[in-house]
Amino acid sequence: MYFNEEIDVVIERLDSNLETGLNDAQVEATRAKYGYNELAEAKKDSLLVKFLNQFKDAMIIMLIIAAVVSMAVDPSEWMDSLIIMVVVIFNAIIGMTQESKAEESLEALKKMSAPTATVLRNNHKITIPGREVVIGDIVYLEAGDFVSADVRILESYNLSID
Fold it and tell me: Over the chain, what HEC string results?
């Protein structure tokens, strides 16, 4: 959108300033309008849904069918069907527990590796969490930095992107 516009035009449209950056009021107004610089997270499944999802595996379905067929063929041998069903339910509980723990670990890793950004605000360079970057921020990038938002490159020296 702004990649082919002149720098002065981009700065004016975003109500920013190359010398001082954004002020606190501009940051709050922009954040109120657009929200934080983060992707919307998908709704998490409830424990019941996670439990029921454990029964989607073809092998589990075959075991349930085997338990039903075993019960239908010889009802006096109900113990075999019961054992199969107990194993299937126990497997579902273990799978649900492991899935929940994996999600918790992933959330913890996301928080630990959250990128930061150096921006110009109120005429000072400050480092903020990447989720707090707003439209119009002047972002400074150095070697090894992660780009925490879409940016329009104003000035670069020996730029190399991986």
Answer: CCCCCCHHHHHHHCCCCCCCCECHHHHHHHHHHHCCCCCCCCCCCCHHHHHHHHHHCHHHHHHHHHHHHHHHHCHHHHHHHHHHHHHHHHHHHHHHHHHHHHHHHHHHHHHHCCCEEEEEECCEEEEEEHHHCCCCCEEECCCCCCCCCCCCCCCCCCCCCC
pTM attached to this predicted model: 0.62
Give 147's contacts (C-beta < 8 A, 6+ positions apart).
139, 141
162 residues of the chain, pLDDT tens digit each: 778 888 889 899 999 999 999 999 999 999 999 999 887 778 888 899 999 999 999 999 999 999 999 899 988 888 989 999 999 999 999 999 999 999 999 888 877 767 889 999 999 999 999 989 999 999 999 888 888 888 888 888 888 887
